[in-house]
Amino acid sequence: MKNDKKEDSKREEEKHRDERIEQTGQVTLNKNKEKQNIHLITIIGEVEGHDNLNSSAKTTKYEHILPQLAAIEDSEDIQGVLVLLNTMGGDVEAGLAIAEMLSSLSKPTVSLVLGGSHSIGVPIAVSTDYSYIVPTGTMVIHPVRMNGMVIGVPQTFDYFKQIQNRITGFVCSHCRIKKQRLEELMMETGVLTKDVGTILVGQETVNEGIINEVGGIKSAMAKLHQLISAKEKQVGKKSENFVEGE
Q1: 43 vs 24: CA distance, rounded Å
Q2: Gap between the Cα atoms of 114 and 120, Å rounded
Q3: pLDDT at position 21, please?
Q4: What CA–CA distance (Å, rounded) separates 158 from 151?
Q5: 217 pLDDT exceeds 90?
Q6: What is the pTM of this model?
Q7: Out of 119, 131, 174, 225, which one is annotated catalytic?
Q8: Pairing of strands 80-90, 109-117
Q9: How far is residue 196's CA from residue 142's CA, in Å, rounded to a whole number?
Q10: Distance (Å, whole) CA 232 – CA 36
Q11: How many percent of the chain have pLDDT more than 70?
Q12: Residue 109, φ and ψ in degrees, nearest 5
C-alpha cells in the first residue's frame, strides 16, 4: 500500500515536472549528488515583448521570466540558476530587462549558448556569472534594427543611438570585450548578406572576450555546482566571523 502511494506520488511529480517544462521551459534540477537545487531557465526562439507574436512562432515571454527570476531571488531553496539559450533575439527592452534581472541575482548563475544567441540574446548570454557556448554555437552581433514606420527626424535617430549605447554598455560591463571592438563587429559590412554585423562561432566568441569558455551542459553544470559551493563556503566564513566578533 505504501509502495503504491509512493509510486503515485512519483508519477504525479514527474507529470507536474513535464507540464512545467512544456508550458514555461523551466524546471528545478535537484537530483544531483551535490544535493543542490538549480533552477533551469530556457530562452528559446524569439524574445517576446509588449506585442504578441505569431502563434506559430517559438517565443520566450518576458512576463513569464521576470516574475520567476524574482521568485528565485526570494527563495531559500534555489541555490543557483542555469540559463540555456537558443534565440534569434527579439524585443530589445524585454531582452535587456531579462539581462538586468539575471545580472542582479544574488544566486550564482551560468549561461550556455546552444545553437545561437543572436542580437538581444548577446546581453542575456553575458549577464550571468559565467558563460559557455557549444563549439557549433553562434552569436550574431549587429546594430539595433528599425522595424516598421520610422519618423525621419533627428530625435528618432538619437533615440535609437541611446538604445544602442545601452546595449553596448551592458555587454561591455559584463564581459571582456572592449566597446570599440564590439562596435567594429556590429558595423562590419563584409560578413552578413545585405546587412551589417558579424557572425561569431564557438571559440571565436571566446577569443573576442564575449563568452568565457567553450563547453557543453556537463561543463556548465559543473561550473554552477562549483560557484554554489564557493558561495556557501563564503557565507559560512562570514557567519563564523560574525559569531567570533560577538
Answers
A1: 10
A2: 15
A3: 45
A4: 12
A5: yes
A6: 0.80
A7: 119
A8: parallel
A9: 6
A10: 11
A11: 71
A12: -135, 145
| 187 close to 196: Cβ distance less than 8 angstroms | yes
The answer to whether the CB of 36 falls within 8 A of the CB of 80 is yes
CB-based contacts of 124: which residues, under 8 Å, 6+ apart? 43, 47, 83, 85, 87, 95, 98, 99, 102, 111, 117
> Residue 84's pLDDT band (boundaries 50, 70, 90)?
very high
208, 183 Cβ separation under 8 angstroms: no
Greatest mean pLDDT among 74-78, 81-85, 157-161, 191-195: 81-85
Q: Cell numbers 562549483 label which residue?
A: 226
Q: Three-state DSSP class for 190?
A: coil
Structure-model confidence comparison of residues 232 and 28, the more confident one: 232
Kindly report, residue by residue over 91-147, the tens digit of the pLDDT.
888 899 999 999 999 999 999 999 999 988 999 999 999 999 999 999 999 887 655
Instruction: Tell me whether residue 118 is one of the annotated catalytic residues.
Output: no
Nearest partner of 231 among 36, 31, 32, judged by Cα: 36
- Cell numbers standing for residue 87: 534565440
Three-state DSSP string of 81-103: EEEEEEEEEECHHHHHHHHHHHH
Active site residue 142: yes
Which among 39, 142, 174, 225 is annotated as catalytic? 142
- Grid coordinates representing 186 are 556590429
Q: How far apart are CA 133 and CA 71, in angstroms?
A: 27
Q: Tell me the residue type at 66.
A: L
C-alpha cell of residue 118: 543572436
**Beta bridge mates, 44:** 86
Q: Specify the pLDDT at position 17.
A: 47
Which cell is 12 given? Answer: 504525479
